[in-house]
Amino acid sequence: MLQRVTIGGIELPRLYMAENRADAELAMSKGIPFIRWSQGKDELIRVLLRPVLEKMFPDIKWASVLGPRRRFRTKVEIVETKPEHDLDVRLDQVHMDDMPDDMDETIDLGIYESHDMDDDGTIVETAIAGGSERLFCGGGGEMVVTHKLDLQNYVGDLSSYVDVEVLQRLRLMPAFIGDILDCIRTNVGSGLQWREGYNKRLGLTVGRFDAARQLPNLIILDVSGSIPRGISATMIALIDTLRTQLSADLIITSTHSRFYPMGSELPEPQRIRDMFGFGNEAKEFFGILGREVRGRHYGHVFSFGDNDTPDYFTDFGCRQPSLEGTVVEHVHHYHTGMWLGPDNRQGKTGYAKWCHMLARKPLEDYDQTWCKVIRS
Fold this sequence. Notes:
Blueprint: E1 3-4, E2 16-18, H1 21-30, E3 34-36, H2 41-56, H3 62-66, E4 75-83, H4 84-90, E5 104-117, E6 123-139, E7 142-150, H5 151-155, H6 164-169, H7 175-190, E8 192-199, E9 204-211, E10 217-222, H8 229-245, E11 248-253, E12 257-260, H9 269-276, H10 283-293, E13 297-305, E14 327-335, E15 363-367
Parallel strand pairs: 2-3, 10-11, 10-13, 13-14, 14-15
Antiparallel strand pairs: 1-2, 4-7, 5-6, 6-7, 8-9, 11-12
């Protein structure tokens, strides 16, 4: 069966998969662009999007996520039937009078345009590069033209309109991102509370479940110089999508610390790198805890970093503020795994230590495996 190649949220040129010879012959007879492919749509999508992933996130070891890369030789095929005089005009480098009636020739055409009829009868024009054409007689004074085109050239550069949320939905991102999102889903169920009350119309004491508002979350991202460049660069590129999906406030810390409340606009990744530098500081970070975090009730705090920590016990203008009334239900430490010592075997990240100093202790999770697919 011929299947249209589609990727949710991404516009593709018209392309069909032919799983067997019968499918290919049907596509050829209809002039439908097709590729011979029998490994399923999911695997084809991986092939199409892998160059996008490698371009967007060069520091991730994609072979660990998607398996080894293999050379892809499958071509897109389009068969058209055209009158000879039409071919004379389009292919001026072909001298039709010098060719025999049973002509069968392959010609490299470089760049040209393919005119296609879409499902609704609309003419679709697609710019094609790097293809070849095979010409042969089709009878009745017509010539048959078979285009064979590189798949990547036919589909084009997807990186300009593929966002991270699409890649996550297609399960093409490292597993730890999905694990984080799974943690948050517990907030919805745990927010249900039973309330009793007197119903005047019924004259009875009755109860009901109320869905309490989902608790906000907080992400802390350390991008200082002790974090391997590949890890910090990748997390800076991912962090805007993560905080949106987690309904989370965000603290980014390094030479400076800044607080970005949920729903606010985040600078571009390169701007973040330029703004925050490679150092460590405490004064601005503690100011954020005192102004923005104190008294808040967070469902989850996610901290990405290493042992580096603000000094909680100095009197140099950056003493830890009071966090009276602050509640954190669950803290997740995503440690790079570097610089761990006997006093921190679990992998507690320095910039989330304040969570363990609260009057009410949160649940704790530790993960040092999350960044193995990112180069260090």
